[in-house]
Automatic annotation (TrEMBL):
It comes from Toxocara canis (Canine roundworm). It comes from the Eukaryota. This is TIL domain-containing protein.
Amino acid sequence: LKPNETGCIIDEQCKRACESTYCENVHRPSRCLCDKGSHFLFNKCWKKCPEFAYSEPQVDTNGFSQCILKTDQRTAIMYMRRNRRQLRSAFC
């Protein structure tokens, strides 16, 4: 289940992705949001956007904050795998 793609109903669906997420179901479609100060990327909440994404997160009118990739998804995932230890503290 990817709540941001399919919509969420309860907070527990979002907690699977990250402990600091909650289900925002006031707007339609409902989706998982990160706590204030964190940004969504790859179903995780990042304290700051990683090197393979733009440093400034994009925030929409509903308060959804997300990091935008500046590289392709495959390269970003490979970077995450190679730098797993260094990135561990960057997201929950």
